[in-house]
Amino acid sequence: MEEKVFNFAIIGCGVIAPNHAEGIVNTPNARLVAVADIVEEKARSFAQKYNCDWYLDYKEMLDRPDIDIVNICTPSGLHPEMAIEAMKRGKHVITEKPMAITLEQADAMISASKEYNRKLACIFQRRTQSVFKKIKEVISQGAIGRLILGDAYMKYFRSQAYYDSGDWRGTWALDGGGALMNQGIHCIDLMQWIMGEVGSVFAYTRTLARKIEVEDTAVAVLEYKNGAIGVIEGTTSVVPGFDHRLEFHGVDGSILVDGERIARWEVPGVELKLEPEVTVGSTASDPRAVGYRGHMLLIQDMIDAIKNNRDPLIPGEEGKKALKIILAIYKSSKERKEVYLDTM
């Protein structure tokens, strides 16, 4: 019997959309059939490049019965409405990070997934990289002992021109936040995935370098539920922009990450062996350098999840976790007090 080909559609033809398109066209049994964008030139040129249909109205595109999976690549504040509409019409959904900009929106997306029996997957492509999978594995096995510190330093650079390139960038209504919500969320997701759930935060967020509504500089102290503590520093204000550094410390060992490579591997009795994979570029100052491999793996995972009726690798419940940490940081800074995540 011939294997089913899954038809994909993309909503939003901006900076991250090519990663999704390349991930689709390089996946066996996947086909990009349509794209939608409110800017006609963007939609038409994107469709010409990938030999598919284009629409100005995403709802008109969703009327098509041949679409199986919809990838949402629009400004963050639009994700919930579009995801829920797609699931309501029988489509499975892959949404870019953050899945939403409020917990209420995230919960509504998760509820819609259950109500309409559709898969909902979130893009956190670094979870697919062999570096972070290996770190997750050895720490989960207790190889560095009881965890005591977990820190993330994300000193990135985005110019004023970057924020001016789209009227949604740097706004609360559509970006939902700044250096943490848009750029730092990937590493914040990794920290909670590897270190464990965050119990509380105390934070300062500031707008110090850019003319935007949201933060370009943030510092937070975390307490993990397992008793470990840590620091998050996130910026888009540091010149010229540096690779992120993630640091994991236990009573018996340490692992330090610089960008996408392991800089120090102090794990007693465990040799560092990684699966070979395509090198991922640095997004310290260029958001387009990430490459499409991680997106492709999550696209392939969605297809497998549908075929085998299982949850995708990063379902809505997982996508919500980093969002909750960031919203707690914003709340702490605004109210000048420690915020406990279980109260949110």
Give your account of this protein's structure.
Helix content is 34%, strand content 23%. Helix 4 (79-88) runs parallel beside helix 5, helix 5 (103-115) runs antiparallel to helix 10 (316-335) and helix 6 packs across helix 8 (179-195). Strands 13-12-11-7-10-9-8-14 form an 8-stranded mixed β-sheet. Strand 2 (30-36), helix 2 and strand 3 (53-55) form a beta-alpha-beta unit. By secondary structure, it is of the alpha/beta class. It is globular. It contains 10 helices and 14 strands. It has 2 domains: 6-125 and 293-315, NAD(P)-binding Rossmann-like Domain (Rossmann fold); 128-289 and 322-343, Dihydrodipicolinate Reductase, domain 2 (2-Layer Sandwich).
Element layout with pairings:
Elements: E1 6-11, H1 17-25, E2 30-36, H2 40-50, E3 53-55, H3 58-62, E4 69-72, H4 79-88, E5 92-95, H5 103-115, E6 120-122, H6 130-140, E7 147-155, H7 160-164, H8 179-195, E8 198-206, E9 217-224, E10 229-235, E11 245-250, E12 253-258, E13 261-266, H9 293-307, H10 316-335, E14 339-340
Parallel strand pairs: 1-2, 1-4, 2-3, 4-5, 5-6, 7-10
Antiparallel strand pairs: 7-11, 8-9, 8-14, 9-10, 11-12, 12-13
Helix pairs in contact: 1-9, 4-5, 5-10, 6-8, 8-10
